[in-house]
Fold this sequence. Notes:
Strand order of the largest sheet: 3-2-1-4-5
Structural class: alpha/beta
Strand content: 5-15%
Helix content: 25-40%
Amino acid sequence: xxxxxxxxxxxxxxxxxxxxxxxxxxxxxxxxxxxxxxxxxxxxxxxxxxxxxxxxxxxxxxxxxxxxxxxxxxxxxxxxxxxxxxxxxxxxxxxxxxxxxxxxxxxxxxxxxxxxxxxxxxxxxxxxxxxxxxxxxxxxxxxxxxxxxxxxxxxxxxxxxxxxxxxxxxxxxxxxxxxxxxxxxxxxxxxxxxxxxxxxxxxxxxxxxxxxxxxxxxxxxxxxxxxxxxxxxxxxxxxxxxxxxxxxxxxxxxxxxxxxxxxxxxxxxxxxxxxxxxxxxxxxxxxxxxxxxxxxxxxxxxxxxxxxxxxxxxxxxxxxxxxxxxxxxxxxxxxxxxxxxxxxxxx
Length: 347
């Protein structure tokens, strides 16, 4: 990094300020931070397009902008393919580095590799940091270094791996001048709107997510983490589960913070451990895809060029520098005795 040049924090599935290792790293450098969201049309089209998911994402981006503005900062919005847009934005603000939360999906890894190559041509480096999972794929492996294919032994190693500390939200985020850009409406993305009544959808954004988490943590003893082992299958009870799935999907809440608070709610009792085991399943899927050698995303560097260190070190566990689940691995997971349909996000 060259002195005084700003750095870019590119927000993707991490639309929050609390417990954000990439943002914390950027701020530790003592230079301005250009917070960026790229509206990638590819994510709103195709067979997995979802109006409700798009609605939650766009509204959460608006909430992130509001939170940053409350700190005297800015959120820059750019639209288009990230391989072109991110290097162009880095040139626009004169950035020396771009920091992201590590992505584990095949699409995300191909995208990040291509973005890193494009940035490198301008002398800018892309850095991937932890933040989307509780443990990284390299953290939870067998004694011989191989990945686990069965959840039972995996979760024993997962529970025995120290969880990193939760990082505070920053009190301020120094920024750069420039055209912040407009948040698109759904119609401009080719989406008519959400398909569910507004009151049936969770309020978007980090502030709303933290309110949901707080309410669920305080819902005991008949609900919340302490009762999760009893309530989790009660579909008639609208308070039986956490309702934090969307927050986990778009990172308006950190899984490390959720797990830390859930375990503290009942002293690591049966209820909270059952709930946090759902988060372990979420990690397991991502780790299985990351390690699957049949996946096209794993046929080259496996992301090590972006992931800058030994993920088992104490420093990296505390949010320092540090890749996703495959059809074959998912089938192995599905063939085990997985309750509640092998969900990847706790309800």
